[in-house]
Write a structure and sequence with these properties.
2 copies of one chain form a homodimer.
Chain A (H helix, E strand, L loop, with lengths): L1 E5 L6 H11 L4 E4 L10 E6 L15 E4 L5 H4 L9 E3 L3 H19 L2 H9 L15 E5 L5 H10 L3 E6 L9 E4 L4 H6 L3 E4 L13 H6 L4 E5 L8 H10 L2 E6 L19 E3 L9 H18 L13
Parallel strand pairs in A: 1-2, 1-3, 3-4, 4-5, 6-7, 6-9, 7-8, 9-10, 10-11, 11-12
Helix pairs in contact in A: 1-9, 3-5
Amino acid sequence: MILLVKSGGESSLPEWRVLFATLLPELEVRWWNDPEVRAEEVAYAFVWAPEPGRLARYPNLRLVVSSGAGVDHIVGDPALPCVPIAKMAAPEAVARMREYALATVLFHHRKLHRFVANQRARIWREEETTEAARRSVGVMGLGTLGLPAALALRDVGFRVRGWSRTGREVEGIETFSGRDSLPAFLGGTEILLCLLAATPETAGIICARSLAMLPAGASVINAARGSHVVVTDLLAALDSGHIEAATLDVFDVEPLPEDSPLWTHPKVLVTPHVASLPDRAARARFVAAAIRAFEADGTVLNRYDPARGY
Amino acid sequence: MILLVKSGGESSLPEWRVLFATLLPELEVRWWNDPEVRAEEVAYAFVWAPEPGRLARYPNLRLVVSSGAGVDHIVGDPALPCVPIAKMAAPEAVARMREYALATVLFHHRKLHRFVANQRARIWREEETTEAARRSVGVMGLGTLGLPAALALRDVGFRVRGWSRTGREVEGIETFSGRDSLPAFLGGTEILLCLLAATPETAGIICARSLAMLPAGASVINAARGSHVVVTDLLAALDSGHIEAATLDVFDVEPLPEDSPLWTHPKVLVTPHVASLPDRAARARFVAAAIRAFEADGTVLNRYDPARGY
């Protein structure tokens, strides 16, 4: 039986082989584009952004494991076979996102982006900032990654509010749900952190209209999917001064194309889709756990639900 | 009675006047260089870096309040009068330093400095990083500012070790004390955060010898005093690659001179002595509390002890 791998580029195959040799010694590990793979032997696929139509080629495919927490890079395939999908949920991914949320919210809270820009011009200038206890952070999405991030931000002292589809209640966090509550949620958000799942409903949710609902001087962080942000609208809001700064980890096209204006914008920090990236050993452990659980009794860990869209 | 003020530059005097009019309405608030101040009427001085010899001119001076947490900018005066000194300890200063510690340690932990540099060159490159639970942060100085910072770093998940003069015990933090323990302390420190008081014993403590004790790839943050770091040694360690990156908030000469090589070094983040800076309202509240306590029964809040040197 074959475990087909498409994650991290073909150069990472030797490392995946070493990791899976220990964790799943009975499986044959093959790269996605290996021409010698016999389609009927493929039982498992561990993938990031498989080409549409490809997964349908494997008649005995039992389980797909997504290399990321989201599945939008898989489920857009019109020929997607009816096979369960386990969404990457390495405990490390949660910890990584929590760290990234803290790092980037604190970066904007303490206006480090201004110091980075001032340093280039050799400008020594204090920036008066409020303490965390008086700073409001709004987290969009309170799921597997969003909720732990919101709790961590609350625990370091920020005033945290959360916006989610279901409007769950969380201690010490003011929660909002549904489109109708967006003006109230955004109106009281000084640092916006987007950790939403990518669904048709959330596409373009950070646009001219919603950015205008944020108070003047707010900052925006997107560590979910590029599709959530209308980049031209964000750039206009940065240039008008309404939005103070932005950190973006995800983009419609990745790697971010060389001619993107985001690379050189003085108010934008670009990170290369690393927010929740666990190291390979951690991801391999989740793949092994998902396959073991499925083999034991058909359990699909952290299963993709087509009805919800994530 | 006069409260003489030298903090934040003369342009801040109107704001200080408004704040103190509410908090200490019985005192006359005058700027440090006001030629019309009658020396014998000065009862209190709230200062940052007063010129040597100046404080000795006021025969009825009762209390000096330092505008910063340290007093090295005051006690170097050879003509320092025998007047008690209260060191700024606005609760906000502790919270600010805790935030700065979190912001800068997370900045280095997640290698944001590399992304800042890569962005300028339009380079999209993942940086594999360990999670906080496997990352060791060493805090030098476990005093008023250092201990809360160390605890906050522990609470967000880092492995924290502390080095202090007295070697106090702190739950969940491995502590070290004395010069003899420096090799052991530094040898296990991946991100070093210096929050020491500035004394003759700690001057130049971050030098070629101690930097060499850090493991290769370590990062250095100094938010205490410029005198702790031998800048030429730090630059050499950055250039050799032994030290990955540095964030510096304090310098021997401030503002940092325009010709300092720190401004343009690609591995250095310069912040303009803002780490623990509370806003003016918070500092004014501490000054008022210190004067009230002194007037009530001679208590000196957070008193400078010449024997310890801080």
